[in-house]
Every structure is written in C-alpha cells, then in structure tokens.
Specification:
238 residues, Rossmann fold, five-stranded parallel β-sheet, globular
Length: 238
C-alpha cells in the first residue's frame, strides 16, 4: 500500500473500542494522525485517561483535548445523574433511542474536528460511528455522516476553494465482532480501551449498560475474551 504520511487526518478519539480501532485503521493506511478528544462533562471521564494513553502509545502527531460544557445543557444520562439503563436485550438496545443519547454530540464533535482539520491541513476526518451494533443514536447513521460532510464542504474555506473534506467512518456497517476482529488483526490492545457508561470509582466496567453489553457481544462473536476488568472482578467473554 502506498504510504500517505504527507496526508494528515483528524481522528475523533474517545478512548473506547471503536475509536481506538479507527485510529489503528488510519495509521495502517499511512495517515499522519491528529487525535481529538473531548471533556464534555461526561460522567465516565476515565475514557479521557484512556484516550491520552492510547494516543501516546500510538505516537500520534498531536493529541488535543477540548473542554465542552455539555453537562450544563444536560438531556442525557451521560452528562447528568439520571439512571443509566441496564440489562437490555439486543432487540431492546436498538428499538428506541436511550437516555444515554447526548443531544448534538456528534454534530458538535465533527464541527470541532473540521475546524482543526482546516487549521492543520488535514482533509480526512475519521469517526468510529456504527449503524449495526449500536444504541440507536440518530447521529451514527450513514445519512447523517453524508449530510455533515456535504455541510462542512459548503461552509468552510477548504470547500470554497475547491478542495474537499472527507469524513471516513470505516466501521459504520460492521458488526461489533467484525470491528474487534479487524482491530486485533491490526494489533489493537483492547485492554487499554474503555466503553462502560457507568464505571465504579476504580474505573471498572459495570457489565450491564448498553455499551458494555454490545462490547461483550462483540468479543463473543469474535471468539475472544474481553481483556478489561469488570466490577464482578473477572473478565468476560468466551
């Protein structure tokens, strides 16, 4: 594969399983990666520690953490003290938009990513959204990604000068098991990632929220054991 080290990409990096896999995919394709994370008032701030560690281990060009006060807007159990839903079946997870949906989150994140991409000279923005094994969030669908890409090319200096941004969502139509298999093939260390919406004070995953259940489902499908530790003091998986 031709190397693209002269090509820069902004990677939205949460510290979770999907975004860490996307970073590995972008680096394997030869992109010089600029990682962007957000302290947005989320209750699971341990993910930022993981994002910093992952970016450092990957030796990215730069890792920027921006602070947003989405907790002041509220409207989500991830930014308030509302109860996190637990122990849903797979059909229940995808049936309705849960209260873990953060209003405007991906719109806001991608807007900042586009702004930074314009400044550093990147034309590719990578995001780890998924429209198969996910919690039904409307801002994870291909239609949203396509519409946002069109918008930033209409509303940016880059676009007005005849260049284009591309939003790359390489996981969008993969199952969680397929994502994990792809990441393992690229050498991703999933023990460094964090997915849980409701970790305890030690940062251990709850094992019952939608994100944990989807993660565990993925490792089972991939025929692997989840290497992270859960609150019952043991790893999960096959």
């Amino acid at each position: 594969m031709a190397m693209k080290q002269d090509r820069k990409a902004v990677i939205l990096l949460s510290g979770g399983l999907d975004s860490t896999t996307v970073l590995a995919i972008a680096q394997a394709a030869g992109y010089n990666c600029y990682c962007l994370s957000f302290a947005y008032g989320q209750r699971q701030e341990i993910e930022l520690d993981r994002a910093r560690a992952i970016a450092k281990a990957a030796n990215v060009a730069q890792h920027l953490v921006l602070r947003l006060d989405l907790d002041k807007i509220g409207g989500s159990s991830l930014t308030t003290d509302a109860t996190i839903p637990k122990h849903h079946s797979s059909s229940e997870i995808s049936a309705n938009i849960p209260n873990t949906y953060v209003p405007g989150r991906n719109t806001i994140f991608l807007s900042h990513a586009a702004a930074w991409a314009e400044v550093v000279g990147a034309r590719d923005i990578f995001i780890g959204v998924n429209a198969l094994d996910y919690s039904g969030y409307p801002d994870c669908r291909p239609e949203f990604i396509g519409a946002f890409e069109k918008m930033i090319n209409l509303g940016s200096k880059v676009g007005s000068e005849g260049n284009t941004f591309t939003i790359q969502a390489p996981l969008i139509m993969l199952s969680k098991g397929e994502i994990i298999r792809k990441g393992l093939a690229l050498g991703v260390d999933y023990s460094q990632t964090h997915s849980c919406y409701d970790p305890d004070n030690q940062g251990l995953a709850c094992g019952g929220c939608d994100s944990c259940l989807l993660r565990l489902k993925g490792f089972a499908e991939a025929g692997n054991t989840d290497p992270v530790e859960y609150q019952n003091n043991r790893n999960h998986g096959s």
